[in-house]
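User: My collaborator sent over this chain with a note saying "see what the structure looks like." That's all I know about it. Can you take a look?
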Amino acid sequence: MKKIAPAFEPSSGNVFRDLGFEHPEEELAKAQLILQIVELVRARGLTQTAAAHLLALPQPKVSLLLRGQMAGFSTGRLIRLLNRLDQDVEIVVRTKTSTRRPARLRVTRQSAGSARLRRRLA
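Assistant: Without extra context I'll predict from the sequence alone. Here is the result:
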């Protein structure tokens, strides 16, 4: 019997682009910000009620957030939530390289170790 290889498409590196979202870079950035929030809440061992109090959100909204639901959370709101979790959020704007098209939006996380080193060097 002849085996048929499953059809697949290589990923662009952004699942939201692959799925045809209108603004895939923004959706990916929001997902990455939510992931940071979820990791911080879990690392602190916060209950949803405690997280709701700290984030100044109703508990049902925290539940949605911790399950990765992005609807109702703008990028700005997610940044404010990170600030409430004692995270500095830095937005850097720079000229894109001429070889890369189009310009992009990217979220990165600085490791705790590099943050301590930066403070020592400052």
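A starting point for your reply to your collaborator: The mean pLDDT is 86.
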